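Supplementary Methods. Inverse-folding protocol.

Structures were first reduced to a discrete structure-token string of length 124. This string, shown here, constituted the complete conditioning input.
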């Protein structure tokens, strides 16, 4: 991964290596042309979001060993698709965001003010 910036203008931090996240499964949430889902928001999973996502047809809870996917639990950090996070936000189920591990590309669709309102652990 070449150096990417986060929504705060600093260097993009890793989101999670346990479970290993990111479109490339390298722990980072950054834009790639071959990633139409835009896995660019590092979010902390909540039960509300996991249930919302499952209801939308994206089951993030059930392990899928065939895809090397362990299944997620509340508290796990995961690179979430920008459109799904926006949908969850509109439905009142958006998970907290780790700002230093969220790609600046997200700012094209979500304001920094909105992201700050969802900042994990008061991350500013």
């Amino acid at each position: 991964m070449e150096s990417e910036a986060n929504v705060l203008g600093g260097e993009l931090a890793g989101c999670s290596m346990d479970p290993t996240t990111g479109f490339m499964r390298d722990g980072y949430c950054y834009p790639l042309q071959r990633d139409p889902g835009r896995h660019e928001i590092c979010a902390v999973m909540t039960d509300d979001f996991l249930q919302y996502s499952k209801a939308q047809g994206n089951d993030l809870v059930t392990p899928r060993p065939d895809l090397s996917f362990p299944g997620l639990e509340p508290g796990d950090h995961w690179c979430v698709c920008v459109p799904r996070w926006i949908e969850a936000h509109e439905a009142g189920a958006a998970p907290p965001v780790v700002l230093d591990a969220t790609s600046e590309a997200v700012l094209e669709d979500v304001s920094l003010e909105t992201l700050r309102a969802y900042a994990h652990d008061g991350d500013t």
